[in-house]
């Protein structure tokens, strides 16, 4: 079978690339290895799909050369994504920290809008098409299915096969292997935007507790980055948006320390004064209930134990000034040693990918193979948690599709 162009990958970037290419006059098909398309989009934002972030900028993205993303985002920014989906019927709503959701609160609305557009443009979609290899000769790409029953020949090819994250939703890392067949190299791959396993003691007994915290990541005493938001304690470690935003650092450093500020609205002096007043007002209580109403009860009890109070049956009136200083310090500096991530199976995105040095950031075209393009997570670019990675998918997919149609 011959077609002018083909997209490998039926995810966000692949759909945007195909829709943009066809709208600009290029006949194109979509190939997806799973039985359904856009599975990952459907799961985004806990089923609500924060499909972009109005604040998206270069500082929200990472990779060996994060500047690669600048040109792409300037060509198709978050306002372009909002406009694109508005034209497809998605009324948007901006929520906390610039996250943009469909007003209906349904990820399925975004999926349906994209499906309806491919139907309108008459873009063929081939599911259960698992690409095993690509052969490039005589300026044509030959794409072979894994079962050996299908061969697609095309003049232009866009690889948007995703990364290694959430493999059950479609991405299994095959895009990197296909890129290597075309002469491209990939960086080391690691899970990002993922839960983290930690030492047991700092999280013992805290499973299910959520607090607002500011976390600062340290490597060998050097401050790397910080994030503020919801921190979730789990039976294996820590999770939540504030953890996701810093989890990319595990792709760059080992033996990280995450220092949690458990009362980011107060400085340490304020907390010391607060504890001193509490000692006077709550002298009739035992230490077991000393921090009730100030910090989550279980978390507070663990903090007290880690400050050196062995028996929580101790009377509050016996609390020393030295111990108050220690408790205040722990509230502002609660160190949690990171051991590892929970793996690609739980990761929202992949850190690493096809090296961007081999791709033109103004067109997304390969510098090694003419008429070969890349888009989305398969490239060595990923973003913060909160709509930034879908924005990258739309932006890179748009540019790849537009460039393919324009040549």
Automatic annotation (TrEMBL):
UniProt domain RsdA/BaiN/AoA(So)-like Rossmann fold-like: residue ranges: 4-402
Keywords: FAD, Flavoprotein
Reported cofactor(s): FAD
Domain RsdA/BaiN/AoA(So)-like insert residues, every copy: 190-349
The keyword Protein biosynthesis appears for this protein: no
Pfam annotation, one family: HI0933_like
Entry protein name: HI0933 family protein
Originating species: Sebaldella termitidis (strain ATCC 33386 / NCTC 11300)
């Amino acid at each position: 079978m011959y077609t002018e162009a083909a997209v490998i990958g039926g995810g966000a970037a692949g759909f945007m690339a195909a829709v943009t290419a066809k709208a600009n006059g290029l006949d194109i098909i979509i190939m997806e290895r799973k039985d359904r398309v856009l599975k990952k989009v459907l799961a985004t934002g806990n089923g609500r799909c924060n499909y972009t972030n109005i604040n998206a900028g270069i500082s929200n993205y990472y990779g060996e050369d994060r500047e690669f993303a600048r040109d792409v985002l300037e060509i198709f920014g978050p306002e372009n994504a909002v406009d694109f989906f508005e034209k497809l019927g998605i009324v948007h709503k901006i929520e906390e920290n610039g996250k943009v959701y469909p007003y209906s609160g349904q990820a399925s609305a975004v999926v349906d809008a994209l499906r309806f557009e491919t139907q309108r443009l008459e873009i063929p979609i081939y599911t259960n098409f698992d690409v095993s290899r690509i052969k490039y000769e005589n300026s044509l790409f030959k794409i072979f299915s894994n079962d050996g029953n299908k061969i697609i020949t095309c003049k232009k090819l866009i690889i948007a096969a995703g990364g290694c994250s959430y493999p059950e939703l479609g991405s299994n890392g095959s895009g990197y292997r296909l890129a290597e067949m075309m002469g491209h190299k990939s960086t080391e791959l690691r899970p990002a935007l993922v839960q983290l396993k930690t030492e047991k003691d700092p999280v013992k007994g805290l499973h299910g507790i959520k607090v607002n915290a500011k976390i600062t990541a340290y490597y060998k005493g050097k401050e790397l980055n910080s994030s503020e938001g919801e921190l979730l304690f789990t039976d294996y470690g820590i999770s939540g948006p504030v953890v996701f935003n810093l989890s990319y650092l595990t792709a760059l450093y080992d033996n990280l320390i995450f220092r949690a500020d458990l009362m980011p609205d107060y400085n340490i002096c304020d907390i010391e004064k607060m504890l001193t007043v509490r000692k006077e007002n709550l002298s009739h209580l035992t230490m077991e209930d000393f921090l009730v109403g100030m910090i989550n009860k279980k978390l507070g009890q663990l903090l007290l134990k880690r400050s050196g109070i062995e028996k929580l049956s101790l009377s509050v009136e016996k609390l020393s000034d030295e111990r108050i200083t220690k408790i205040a310090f722990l509230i502002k500096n609660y160190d949690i040693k990171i051991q590892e991530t929970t793996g690609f199976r739980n990761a929202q995105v992949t850190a690493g990918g096809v090296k961007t040095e081999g791709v033109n950031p103004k067109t997304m075209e390969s510098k090694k193979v003419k008429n070969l393009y890349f888009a989305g997570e398969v490239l060595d670019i990923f973003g913060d948690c909160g709509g930034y990675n879908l924005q990258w998918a739309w932006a890179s997919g748009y540019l790849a599709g537009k460039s393919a149609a324009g040549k």
